[in-house]
Amino acid sequence: MKLLRPTRLAVTLFFLAISPLCFAQSNKPTEDKAEQILQRALKGVGGDRYLQVTTVIGRGFFTDYKDGVSQIPMKFVDYISYPDKERTEFAGGGQRIIQTNFPNGGWIFDGAALTLKDQSQAQLDDFRIATRTSVENLLHGWWRAQGARLTYVGRREAGIVGRRNETVRVTYPDDFWVEYEFSADDGMPAKVLYLRKQKNRDTEEMEDVKEEDRLAKPITTDGVTSSFIIDHYRNGIQTSRIAYDSVEFNKPVAESLFAKPANIKAVK
Predict the structure, then answer these.
(1) In a domain, 122, yes or no
(2) N or C terminus of the chain with fewer C-beta within 10 Å?
(3) Sign of CA dihedral 194, 19, 158, 68
(4) Domain tally for the chain?
(5) Is position 12 within any domain?
(6) What is the maximal distance between C-alpha atoms in the chain?
(7) Where are the beta strands (DSSP E) in the chain?
(8) Is residue 2 part of a domain?
(9) Residue 253 belongs to domain with CATH number
């Protein structure tokens, strides 16, 4: 959900220790090391079983944070059809919101305001960033078709004494990059980090914002392992939590779920 974003397509992280290593040019040794880490992670999440996933239905609670303080959780149901369709339904506190994305488009239904609108360009851009930065994009290899390159960054502190994460970077032709951290112990996905541009409210100037997803509580379902907790941070301050109660893989997801209804009365 990638406004609210309980999407598995979207993952984000904090502390970026930017060093010369981060900006080292791609070369064969770093590419080979990065591929080894990626393949180890792929094996850890299920290997071929993971790669055979075409749809995901997730249920749980999404919690928004204001100034680092949690707000009232909302229930969500998230429908994903890989690689680029997603519909998330939120409910709670008398609200019902449906946020839907598909290639080059999307719409939002707000039950409280009784509105059905196409997504703004900013919202579409958010979804594009979420798909680009997702662990799914990395492990499925969809970034390769976009001309991106994979390099090894190095080891980092994992936030737990004595533990380290191996870090790889995907850099796109437009110079947008994403860094993924994997546990050096078991190879499982741990964090996702990237920078994005945002206008400063006070100065009106564009500035870099550090985005981070911290992945936790890995659970295996039908041979596929996924994180049931995703905490999102912006400039080191928590902004949301996705907590899954259940995840189903390769269940039927009707194409009609993604089509924009003709009017509010047609919303289901």
Answers:
(1) yes
(2) C
(3) negative
(4) 1
(5) no
(6) 58
(7) 55-66, 69-70, 74-81, 85-92, 95-102, 105-110, 115-118, 149-157, 164-171, 177-183, 189-199, 206-221, 224-234, 237-249
(8) no
(9) 2.50.20.10
Q: Virtual CA dihedral for 198, 235, 179, 159, nearest 10 degrees? A: 180
* Backbone φ/ψ region at 46: left (φ over 0), alpha (ψ -120 to 50), beta: left
Q: Which structural domain, as residue segments, surrounds residue 167?
A: 20-266
Q: How far apart are CA 229 and CA 222, in angstroms?
A: 18
Q: What is the spatial distance between Cα 23 and Cα 257, in angstroms, rounded to a whole number?
A: 42
Query: What are the pLDDT digits (tens) for 26-79?
Result: 467 789 999 999 999 999 999 999 999 999 999 999 999 999 999 999 999 999
pLDDT in tens, 144-171: 999 999 999 999 998 777 799 999 999 9
Q: Is the pLDDT of residue 17 over 70?
A: no
Residues in CB range of 111: below 8 A, 6 or more apart: 95, 96, 97
Distance, CA of 119 to CA of 9 (rounded, Å)? 18
Closest CA to 56 of 20, 10, 97: 10
pTM recorded for the entire structure:
0.86
Q: Do 153 and 179 form a contact (C-beta atoms < 8 A)?
A: yes
Q: What pLDDT is recorded for position 27?
A: 64
Helix (H, G, I), strand (E, B) or coil at 173: coil
| In contact, 110 and 92? CB cutoff 8 Å | no
pLDDT score, position 190? 97
* 9 located within any domain: no
| Average pLDDT of the segment spanning 113-120 | 96
Q: Is the dihedral of CA 121, 173, 190, 39 positive or negative?
A: positive
Mean pLDDT over 170-191 rounds to 97
- Quote the CA–CA distance of 130 and 261 in Å, as a whole number: 24
